[in-house]
Amino acid sequence: MTATPSFEPLLAAVAQRRTQVIAYLEDSAIARRFEPDHIRDAAYSYIRQGGKSLRPAVLMLSCGAVGGEETVAIPAAAAVEVYHTWTLVHDDIIDRDDKRRGAPTLHREYAARGARDLGWSGAEADHYGLTVALLAGDLQQAWSYALLYELHGRGVDAALVLRLATELATTVQTTLVAGELLDVQFSNAGIADLTEERVIDMLWRKTGALYEFAGRAGAAIGAGHFDAPEVDAIAGFCSRCGTAFQIQDDILGMVGNEAQLGKPVGSDIREGKRTLITLKALEVADEAQRVRLEGTLGNPAATPDEVAAVVRLARDLGAVEYASSLKQRYVDEALARLAVVPDSEHRRLLELWAAYMIAREF
């Protein structure tokens, strides 16, 4: 059995880059125009909560891996952090989640602030929370594009900046939105209507596409152009790691530690999400087991005992183990893409990040 590597060097590197990115965002001239105070606070809420900021760190490491100066890429790293944040804000609304990183989700936070600061109550306060969250996400999306344009002030070629902004606004945006909607649609789809390939494609759209962009953007900024073979190699590496990340997310959503995750374990079961785990469990279950699974999947009123029974059944049917083997396969494929990237501390940190993506527990 291969020993789990120490992730301390990676986590230290990620934390260092997060500090740089957050400092850049806190000093954002654009954000000083956000008003009134509820929308300004909302735009920064998740950013200040203390997430790991993996995507901006990967962007900066990708820049360094091709010999670029990481500090030049900070505006792009900040853009990716803000872009990812708006997707979380809207995702929490879509999934009707109440917790994010152990704290109230943005729409719940501002329902409470609507009650406290404006004297609203009940449905009006809840609607206010949704309104603020939607508007904050809209603002963050625009902010992310504006941050990308700031690359030109750091000497990045204008044509490269324009191409990155266009890719984020078109390719990434359309891919991610499609993945989110497919995720919702799949929750009510029958097993006969889904295949592993369709579910993996949905997972990649939701997560892999933005990681691919982060890798490509960082490498292109570092190389000064898109034509270097290392740019495509790092983009493909990040793309596959992003899919593995989402598979691990689905595993943790079923069998993870709720205290570490900062959100309820089992919410995917109550929502009826067709993860690779539930798809495989339904595929190999006998008739009686399938009835038990389908009786709980998609039932928002499912009790903790009913959810726990589904988790045990998924384990017994080998579905969790199957998903684990699949995430490892994607990481192995990802690592093979780095063969054309010169050996360096940056490359070794990217390799460690790939291992971390499927070993993390939150």
Summarize the structure.
The chain is an all-alpha fold and 362 residues long. Helix content is 73%, strand content 1%. It has a single domain (8-359), classed as Farnesyl Diphosphate Synthase.
List the helices and strands and how they pair.
Layout: H1 8-26, H2 37-48, H3 54-65, H4 74-94, E1 99-100, E2 103-104, H5 106-118, H6 122-149, H7 158-186, H8 196-223, H9 229-255, H10 258-261, H11 267-271, H12 276-284, H13 287-296, H14 304-316, H15 319-337, H16 345-359
Helix pairs in contact: 1-3, 1-4, 2-6, 3-4, 3-8, 3-16, 4-6, 4-8, 5-6, 7-8, 8-9, 9-15, 9-16, 12-15, 13-14, 15-16
Task: Explain what you see.
This protein is mostly helical. The chain has a single domain (8-359), classed as Farnesyl Diphosphate Synthase, CATH 1.10.600.10. The protein has helices spanning 8-26, 37-48, 54-65, 74-94, 106-118, 122-149, 158-186, 196-223, 229-255, 258-261, 267-271, 276-284, 287-296, 304-316, 319-337, 345-359, and strands at residues 99-100, 103-104. A two-stranded antiparallel ribbon has the order 1-2. α4 (74-94) runs antiparallel to α8 (196-223).
CATH architecture: Orthogonal Bundle
**Largest beta sheet: what is the strand line-up?**
1-2
Query: Could you state the CATH homologous superfamily?
Result: Farnesyl Diphosphate Synthase
Instruction: Summarize the amount of helix as a percent range.
Output: over 70%
CATH class type: Mainly Alpha
Count every beta strand, where a strand is a DSSP E run of 2 or more residues.
2
Kindly state the mean pLDDT as a whole number?
94
The name CATH uses for the topology is Farnesyl Diphosphate Synthase
H/E topology pattern? HHHHEEHHHHHHHHHHHH
For the record, the count of structural domains works out to 1
In DSSP terms, counting alpha (H) and pi (I) runs of 4 or more, how many helices? 16
* % residues in beta strands: under 5%
Separation of termini? 23 Å
Question: Overall 3D geometry?
Answer: globular
